[in-house]
Specification:
binds 2,5-anhydro-1,6-di-O-phosphono-D-glucitol; 5-stranded mixed β-sheet; binds manganese (II) ion; single chain; globular; alpha+beta
Length: 332
């Protein structure tokens, strides 16, 4: 039985210049995820369900647990001193950790502290997503916006925690995707899924079909393709949509499948945020043999222009994403 802490230290040699900072940083994420996990598990009996009445910068109502998770991750990352700043879905602007230790750190973290927050109150899986970059500004100075606006190909590490029927932490540092399951009686994450590989194709398609009439033609055609009866091609596929990106992606990672949140007539950029939802999931998708794209462009090559930028998103099994991209290209 290998613990997450032991595994990260064992793999530290993946980074030629590793000084233990990234190990400490992942340790801070592990600690915060255990605290958030504990809180989520008692959601029904503690006074933590429901909305705060406050909106975040994107006009979404913040749930109590959105803010709780944001605070816990922020505190853990600042206290550990391996991070010079963070950006979060629940913070209007990036936050600079200006202590001497903070300013002398080389990493920034972007996060979605609680993903799928409309599922909290109904006891359905939620998650935390994180993305880690090396800063571009000089060590010893406060962070700047450009440290956060880097394309996904520059990610040093990314991952998520899924608070589901079990709690798992899944991450990549660019050497495969590894999953750890939390033993709740000990509060320890153990290696359970080393080197996860997403099947080339699967049987599931995940999309909010309530928006069907607003989708671009290529996406509509792809949905119809998924529904056609072609037994030799395993179609019709099964429709599965949880409404928590982390949970939808996790299922497709294990079983094969495609997830899509395309543009709509009303929201040409789609809904999901490039920096703390799409890029980290894209890194995991590619590292497990899958693909992540806007439908026309590789997600990780987009040059970000704003912290809360949205992009159309599709990811999952390579053959399925390629087929969807082809239909989008054929039906502009
Ligand atoms: P968040 O809870 O962090 O704001 O993210 C919600 C996202 C994502 O988890 C999910 O895939 C999508 O929103 C669901 O959106 P719809 O309800 O529009 O389908
Ligand atoms: Mn939200
Ligand atoms: Mn989210
Ligand atoms: Mn969120």
């Amino acid at each position: 039985m290998i613990t997450l802490g032991e595994y990260i230290i064992e793999k530290q040699h993946d980074f030629p210049e590793a000084s233990g900072e990234l190990t400490g940083l992942l340790g801070a994420i592990r600690l915060a995820s255990k605290i958030v996990n504990r809180e989520i598990n008692k959601a029904g009996i503690a006074n933590i369900i429901g909305a705060t009445g406050i909106e975040n910068i994107q006009g979404e109502t913040q749930q109590k647990l959105d803010l709780y998770a944001n605070d816990k991750f922020k505190q853990a990352l600042e206290a550990r001193g391996e991070v010079c700043g963070i950006a979060s879905e629940e913070e209007d602007d990036f936050v600079s950790f200006d202590s001497e230790r903070g300013m002398n750190s080389k990493y920034v973290v972007l996060m979605d502290p609680l993903d799928g927050s409309t599922n909290i109150d109904v006891n359905v899986s939620v998650g935390t997503i994180f993305s880690i970059y090396r800063r571009i500004s000089p060590v010893g100075t406060p962070v700047i916006l450009e440290d956060f606006l880097q394309p996904g190909v520059k990610q040093v590490a990314a991952g998520y925690v899924i608070y589901g029927s079990s709690t798992m932490l899944v991450y990549t540092t660019g050497n495969g995707v590894h999953g750890f399951t939390c033993d709740p009686s000990l509060g320890v994450f153990y290696l359970s899924h080393e080197n996860m590989q997403q099947p080339k194709s699967g049987k599931c398609y995940s999309i909010n079909e309530g928006n069907y009439l607003k989708f671009p033609l290529g996406v509509k055609k792809y949905i119809k393709y998924c529904q056609e009866i072609v037994p030799e091609d395993n179609r019709p596929y099964t429709s599965r949509y949880i409404g928590s990106l982390v949970a939808d992606f996790h299922r497709n990672l294990l079983k094969g499948g495609i997830f899509m949140y395309p543009s709509t007539a009303q929201a040409p950029e789609g809904k999901l945020r490039l920096l703390y939802e799409c890029n980290p999931i894209a890194f995991l998708a590619e590292q497990s043999g899958g693909i992540a794209s806007t439908g026309t462009q590789r997600i990780m090559e987009i040059d970000p222009t704003a912290l809360h930028q949205r992009v159309p998103f599709m990811c999952g099994s390579a053959d399925m994403v390629k087929t969807a991209e082809q239909m989008i290209a054929d039906n502009p």
